[in-house]
Design goal:
The protein has 148 residues and is of the alpha+beta class. It has three helices and six strands.
Length: 148
């Protein structure tokens, strides 16, 4: 959902929490669109850079390795923030067996990137739908112990 300016709308869950989602056609040209969506939503967020990398990897996997990549397929990107606590990212695809495509030297590292960046991640689902989610925890503020 977007407002009149095209900016994504964040549904407020509480004063310090929000969530949003958007569905995209499962085509390679929509992966940059999904990153742009998350970039707009996470503008001014300290976790945005890592979240963008994770979204890019998960959307790429949805397009390449699930039934979403079939004609008229789609995937949905969701984000939820609990300010000061965590950022939750999900990509839901249309399930199926992950297609084993011939790997290129540049490919095959997506979930390794997610593992390196996320504080937690998992895959849920079956042949009809799959959700890959990742949680990024807000850094714990460092207390200044030099002041009295």
């Amino acid at each position: 959902m977007a407002d009149r300016t095209g900016a994504p709308v964040r549904d407020m869950v509480s004063q310090s929490s929000w969530k949003c989602s958007q569905t995209f056609p499962a085509r390679p040209d929509q992966i940059p669109q999904s990153r742009a969506f998350i970039a707009r939503v996470l503008m001014d967020c300290d976790l945005a850079e890592n979240a963008l990398l994770i979204v890019s990897e998960l959307c790429t996997n949805a397009v390449l390795h699930s039934n979403s990549g079939q004609p008229d397929g789609h995937f949905t990107v969701r984000a939820e923030a609990r300010d000061g606590d965590y950022l939750w990212i999900e990509v839901e695809d249309q399930g199926g067996h992950w297609a084993d495509r011939q790997r290129s030297p540049e490919g095959g590292r997506g979930l390794g990137i997610v593992t390196a960046l996320a504080d937690y991640w998992e895959v849920r689902g079956d042949a009809t739908a799959r959700v890959v989610c990742a949680r990024l925890d807000w850094p714990t503020p460092v207390r200044d112990t030099t002041r009295r």
